[in-house]
Hints:
By secondary structure, this protein is an alpha/beta fold. It folds into two domains: 8-36 and 301-400, Alpha-Beta Complex (Aspartate Aminotransferase, domain 1); 42-299, Aspartate Aminotransferase, domain 2. The chain contains 13 helices and 16 strands. It has helices at 29-32, 41-51, 65-77, 91-108, 129-133, 138-141, 159-169, 195-206, 258-262, 284-299, 302-321, 350-360, 382-400; strands at residues 8-12, 15-18, 23-26, 84-88, 116-120, 151-154, 173-178, 182-183, 189-190, 209-213, 237-240, 252-256, 327-333, 336-341, 363-364, 371-374. α2 packs antiparallel against α10. The longest helix has 20 residues, at 302-321. It starts with 7 loop residues before the first strand and ends in a 12-residue tail after the last helix. Bound molecules: 4'-deoxy-4'-aminopyridoxal-5'-phosphate (PMP). 4'-deoxy-4'-aminopyridoxal-5'-phosphate binds at residues 32, 90-92, 95, 124-126, 179, 184-185, 213, 215-216, 241.
Amino acid sequence: xxxxxxxxxxxxxxxxxxxxxxxxxxxxxxxxxxxxxxxxxxxxxxxxxxxxxxxxxxxxxxxxxxxxxxxxxxxxxxxxxxxxxxxxxxxxxxxxxxxxxxxxxxxxxxxxxxxxxxxxxxxxxxxxxxxxxxxxxxxxxxxxxxxxxxxxxxxxxxxxxxxxxxxxxxxxxxxxxxxxxxxxxxxxxxxxxxxxxxxxxxxxxxxxxxxxxxxxxxxxxxxxxxxxxxxxxxxxxxxxxxxxxxxxxxxxxxxxxxxxxxxxxxxxxxxxxxxxxxxxxxxxxxxxxxxxxxxxxxxxxxxxxxxxxxxxxxxxxxxxxxxxxxxxxxxxxxxxxxxxxxxxxxxxxxxxxxxxxxxxxxxxxxxxxxxxxxxxxxxxxxxxxxxxxxxxxxxxxxxxxxxxxxxxxxxx
Length: 412
Ligand code: PMP
């Protein structure tokens, strides 16, 4: 089988085309970020219109209308209490900013010793050193341990364990950071209902901030605009990226409360400023794409229209994927899905082989080790969703030497 990468030259809706003219379903939303499909006319037009004004100006000491409008819109949409917006340009930096803000806030109150963090075991918050410090994926993170700051990992889903950690280290903790409801890169691990709420209550009890990393879960992916909503939780810091621009351009935002914001105010000579500014922070083209993305959510009632698709996705997975002998577990929340395969040695590279089989059948998926990830764009049509799941089932069957029971169905 050909192991070369397809060279993608075009996209339309939920389909990508390579240089040879082959068409593929975008089964992982171009790395978990496309929302309304590729080349959406509203988003395309918004970027072109902004291009006719100005492509980039700095946000250091200046601002521009798309950033101002976007900040206002995000505050309206976000869980209550999040009133301040700090832009950056990717998910790792959104988290890095939240971690630094939490630390600096405590420091400026005189509690400089609150320099540690609590994170979930197997968490993933990005690839920069700060976000790696609160990450727990051995393959990506273990090499860098000598470079990292202090973080204590808690058992996901076990509020009792988090309480024990807070009782032991609470005085030294600045914030708890979580991926709410679903830990994506860990293999789509879904948390039990009530866990996020319990974490929020523990943070309040011990006087530490709660950072919710909604880089992957935000913008409808779990079935609501933000995952936090499902547990009625407002974090102290909310990190957004990926779907923020509909998956068009790099942009991120860290939202926070008035209380956190006020901790950075003071006289000039006190230097309480949050000194953190990336060159392309709040890029105008990206902000215009984000505003258009949010407009499309409204105009197309995307979250409302997603609900039956989530039901269909669940049914299809139960029918075609879960019964396969190689499948240990299908984990899903909204349109975030991880299919864990069982019993294959590392050398088998089974997830990778499934992805190659799927590609040969017209769908692009990207595994996390032995977990096959499906994360279709919210815009994926029911017929495309059917094809994606059938192709995945066939690919798993082909790669694992089993019968999928759906032969021929992919062509339907
Ligand atoms: N946080 C989460 C939960 C993520 O899933 C990711 C990326 N997959 C990141 C942070 C990092 O985002 P970026 O790649 O934009 O830096």
